[in-house]
Write a structure and sequence with these properties.
The complex is a heterotrimer of chains A (133), B (222) and C (308). With 133 residues, chain A is an alpha/beta fold. Chain A has a single domain (8-127), classed as Rossmann fold. In chain A, 35% of the residues lie in helices and 19% in strands. Chain A contains three helices and four strands; from the N terminus they run ββαβαβα. Chain A has helices at residues 46-54, 75-93, 110-127; strands at residues 8-14, 32-38, 59-64, 100-104. In chain A, helix 2 (75-93) links the parallel strand 3 (59-64) and strand 4. Chain A starts with 7 loop residues before the first strand and ends in a 6-residue tail after the last helix. Chain B has helices spanning 9-16, 30-33, 39-56, 73-76, 80-85, 95-104, 148-151, 178-189; strands spanning 2-6, 21-27, 61-67, 88-91, 110-112, 114-124, 127-132, 168-169, 172-176. An eight-stranded parallel β-barrel of chain C has the order 1-2-3-4-5-6-7-8, surrounded by six helices. With 308 residues, chain C is of the alpha/beta class. Chain C is globular. In chain C, 50% of the residues are buried. Classes of the chains: A alpha/beta (133), B alpha/beta (222), C alpha/beta (308). At the A-B interface, helix 1 and helix 2 of A face helix 3 of B.
């Protein structure tokens, strides 16, 4: 094992569920994280998720509001469907749908966000780097 | 509209295997509506292929372009520069579009990226159903606006077979029996007598069975 | 109803005798012995034998060939013909060929969809439907002309049959369909096998009310049950089949080694009831791959000897 694997995670989030300002990576140099904000999680188009992997992400996380609490009613449901579709596509591509995940979180619940990212990192430790990066 | 479904990624990979530089050409009409080959689908497919090729260690350069329609020369013309830059074109248009491209750009391989399936409608968001098989001799007036040629799995013209049960077709419990639909509709229209009418054997000459068809409108040709 | 064929089945029905027909499924191979064996089991117990046409879209020896084998044994075949596999050219051709071989009865059907069978990838035909086929045979017989209007060198004078399913949906339409088949030219009808006698009687009443029983011979279909499992399977998995719950319970209520006996009893009760229904002129016994039981049923039903 030559170089230690430092996973790169891209987070797409709805601004109603999460805000980058609330995040602190201080003291954590074992991963790199990038945030992309959207007015509603339903704005996460399939191609954005794929391009995140093309740009070198090892894992992609989509943060959405809890079901029933989407400001735009079913935006988070659309996001969920889309993410599931892209997960299948990632399996077909051969880099693995497990690299992409969607999680519901209550507005501004930073503890939840931290847990979600930690879970994604655990996953990536198993999966290793993006074979198409 | 014409409904098509994008081919599986594995099949597309095989089709483009001989090429290092391809253009994925989308179509902004029918295939856009059924999410098979519009601008968004071109972007997703290009990205997916780049990722897949990178993973497999295969070199590929993919250009993306979408034109209004691939069945009309006026629009096809616009793609000429892009086509000349590439070794092959992966067209996401229906079979007619693929052939129109091939006709115009005889020196560039034109490859199909979707499977063209049927003439249909949007039943509700995400669901497309086959309605018309282009038989060339429409008698929807007799059948209450429901086509037994297309929607009956046996193309029966004189009523349902014995396999119709609970309004569903024997071949698939999720497929409506067209004849049940026709009977219900004729009942609602007060036209049940149509059911007693003997419909003679269909003249299939106006359909594909008579050979590929052509429509010529002299009044529009100068 | 006219006496324009020399079909033995027509003769028996026209005389007002309660007719008995059964079914013979040709083999999935070219061995004629299979057909002859089945013929031997049925000889003397039936007035005519239906020979199925690639039933359930499974490739079998052709109906016309199997009919020819039965003819050679002195049996009277009813050639079943589906419109699924052949276009109007082939259908008319086979009708002419069949009659030339001595086949005098034909049952006109649409046919099970090919997705059920051994060749689901096949392109289906359905150039014409069963209604068109009935009319075609009638025209060939009574006018001596084929579908193109050509005067035939020898019309096929066949006794024309059609199927009816009193148990398929939609119910109110089923008698309209029966009337239509009669108008198209059907001389006799064989129904789907009857388990729901109430529903069958209702359908017969509707047929009588429309005067249809004056115009066509109806033969009620029966199939002996072998087990409660079979009853349940037929009810749930076979399109157009209605097996009432009490009947399934009855089959389930007897010990396994008595199931066949019970199934035969039910069959005999059904036949007895059929003989009392006005407008029913015979019984069509469909003992699929169980031809040996037909003789026993016909005898126990008191229907032997058959008229010569």
């Amino acid at each position: 094992m030559d170089k230690k694997f430092i996973p790169k995670i891209t987070v797409f989030h709805c601004i109603n569920a999460f805000s980058e300002a609330s995040w602190s990576s201080v003291g954590r140099d074992d991963f790199e994280i990038k945030f992309i904000k959207l007015p509603c999680s339903s704005m996460v188009k399939d191609v954005f998720l794929l391009r995140a992997f093309e740009a070198g992400a090892d894992g992609v996380v989509v943060l959405v509001c809890p079901e029933g609490q989407c400001r735009y009613v079913e935006g988070n449901i659309r996001a969920k469907k889309r993410v599931a579709w892209v997960q299948n596509l990632l399996d077909d591509i051969g880099i693995g749908g497990r690299r992409l995940s969607l999680s519901n979180m209550a507005a501004r619940d930073t503890a939840a966000a931290t847990q979600i990212i930690d879970d994604a990192l655990k996953n990536l430790a198993e999966l290793g780097p993006n074979p198409a990066a | 509209m014409i409904v098509a479904e994008q081919k599986p990624l594995s099949e597309i990979k095989e089709i483009i295997a001989p090429y290092k530089k391809i253009l994925i050409l989308g179509c902004g009409t029918c295939v856009k509506t059924c999410f098979a080959g519009g601008e968004d689908e071109v972007a997703v497919l290009a990205s997916a292929l780049r990722l897949a090729c990178k993973k497999d260690g295969k070199e590929i350069e993919i250009e993306e372009l979408t034109i209004e329609r691939q069945c009309e020369d006026e629009f096809i013309r616009e793609s000429a520069p892009a086509i000349s830059r590439n070794q092959g074109v992966l067209s996401l248009a229906c079979g007619a579009g693929v052939q129109a491209l091939a006709r115009r750009f005889a020196k560039t391989p034109v490859l199909p990226g979707v499977n063209t399936t049927f003439i249909g409608v949007l039943e509700r968001q995400g669901i497309f159903t086959e309605e018309c098989s282009g038989c060339g001799n429409c008698r929807l007036d007799i059948f209450g606006g429901i086509c037994p040629v297309t929607r009956c799995a046996k193309k029966l013209l004189n009523g349902p077979c014995g396999g119709s049960q609970n309004g569903k077709c024997e071949i698939n419990p999720e497929t409506d029996c067209a004849w049940q639909l026709i009977i219900d509709r004729l009942k609602a229209l007060g036209q049940m007598d149509n059911l007693r009418r003997y419909i003679p054997p269909k003249n299939w000459r106006t359909s594909l069975s008579g050979g590929p068809r052509k429509l010529v409108r002299e009044d529009h040709i100068i | 109803m006219n006496m324009n064929t020399n079909s033995k089945l027509q003769e028996i029905l026209s005389k007002g005798e309660f007719a008995v027909t059964a079914e013979c499924g040709p083999p999935r191979g070219a061995t004629p012995e299979v057909v002859r064996k089945k013929g031997e089991l049925l000889k003397g117990y039936v007035d005519a034998v239906n020979v199925t046409d690639n039933q359930t879209a499974i490739v079998r020896m052709s109906s016309i060939a199997a009919c020819a084998h039965l003819l050679q044994m002195g049996l009277e075949p009813v050639m079943q013909m589906v419109t699924r596999d052949r276009n109007r050219i082939a259908l008319q051709s086979d009708i002419l060929g069949a009659y030339s071989l001595g086949i005098k009865n034909i049952l006109c059907l649409s046919g099970d969809h090919q997705s059920f069978g051994s060749q689901p990838d096949a392109l289906n035909d359905f150039d014409i439907d069963s209604m068109n086929l009935i009319r075609t045979v009638q025209t060939m017989r009574d006018q001596g002309k084929d579908m193109s209007g050509f005067e035939l060198n020898g019309p096929p004078r066949m006794f024309i049959g059609a199927a009816a399913n009193p148990f398929a949906d939609p119910f109110e339409y089923r008698v309209i369909r029966l009337a239509k088949k009669i108008d198209a030219g059907a001389d006799f009808i064989q129904t789907q096998c009857i388990y729901n006698m109430d529903r069958f009687k209702e359908w017969m009443k509707m047929a009588r009310d429309e005067g249809l029983t004056e115009k066509v011979h109806i033969l009620g279909g029966v199939t002996p049950l072998k087990s409660a499992g079979m009853a349940r399977f037929m009810n749930n998995k076979v399109a157009g089949m209605d097996v009432p719950e009490p009947l399934i319970k009855r089959m389930a209520g007897v010990p396994k080694d008595k199931a066949i006996e019970e199934g035969i009893n039910i069959c005999l009760e059904t036949i007895a009831e059929l003989r009392d229904i006005e407008g029913v002129h015979g019984v069509h016994i469909m003992a699929i791959e169980w031809e040996e039981i037909v003789g026993q049923i016909v005898e126990s039903a008191g229907l032997t000897p058959r008229p010569k």
